[in-house]
Amino acid sequence: MNCPYCNYNDSKVIDSRDVNDGVRRRRQCLSCNARFTTYERIQPASLFVIKKDQRREEFNRVKLLGGVRKACEKRPLPTGAVEKLIDDIEAELYRSGKSEVPSTVIGDMVMAKLKNLDYIAYIRFASVYREFADITALKDAVDTLVVSQKSHTPASQLSLLPNEKPGELVGRQRKNRRIP
Ligand SMILES: [Zn+2]
After folding, report:
1. Cα separation values, 103 from 64, 109, 160, 164, Å
2. Where exactly are the structural domains of the chain?
3. 4 C-alpha vs ligand 1 centroid, how far in Å?
């Protein structure tokens, strides 16, 4: 680290303290005695995503954020909820210490978190990520949610069917079926 004033290549550390995720050092130039500050931060090792076709791609936070944002579009989620979800996943991935992670693992992590956040966003994300081939696959995913909603609904969860109880929906479908 060269002195920003005279460009001399050596300095001594006169003060050092930990800040959030790094170290702040106060330095003094050994040539002109000017004082300046440097910050040291840990650079996370790069993380690669193994795609379905086995190609490797560097983990791209912006891309993942874009996909999840799209699934959450126009959903009444608290500000910053999507960013927090991505932050948590990113931290978990780096904490795992692995240098390569299959894209399916990341997709499953997103699904697990969306399921606790918003069912509609979950279904939207799942339909893209799981590539629902037809309406039956989509219906199966919704049915699974309705079953799990009956047994356990997270306190933060928005209702899947805001104006109807599952019972009423079934009743109406039955009625419709009788119409020739
Ligand atoms: Zn200097």
Report:
1. 11, 10, 27, 36
2. 11-41, 48-160
3. 7
Q: Is the pTM of this model over 0.90?
A: no
The Å distance, Cα 11 to ligand 1 centre, comes to 8
Strands (E), the chain: 11-19, 22-29, 35-41, 48-50, 56-58, 100-102
Query: Do 85 and 92 contact (CB within 8 A), yes or no?
Result: no
Report which residue type is found at 133.
Answer: A
Q: Which amino acid is at 110?
A: V
**Distance of alpha carbon 70 from alpha carbon 13, whole angstroms:** 48
First to last CA, the chain: 83
d(CA 114, CA 126) in angstroms, rounded, equals 10
**CA 57–ligand 1 middle distance (angstroms):** 43
The 10s digit of each residue's pLDDT in 38-73 is: 988 766 678 999 998 999 999 999 999 999 999 999
CA of 121 to the centre of ligand 1 (A): 56
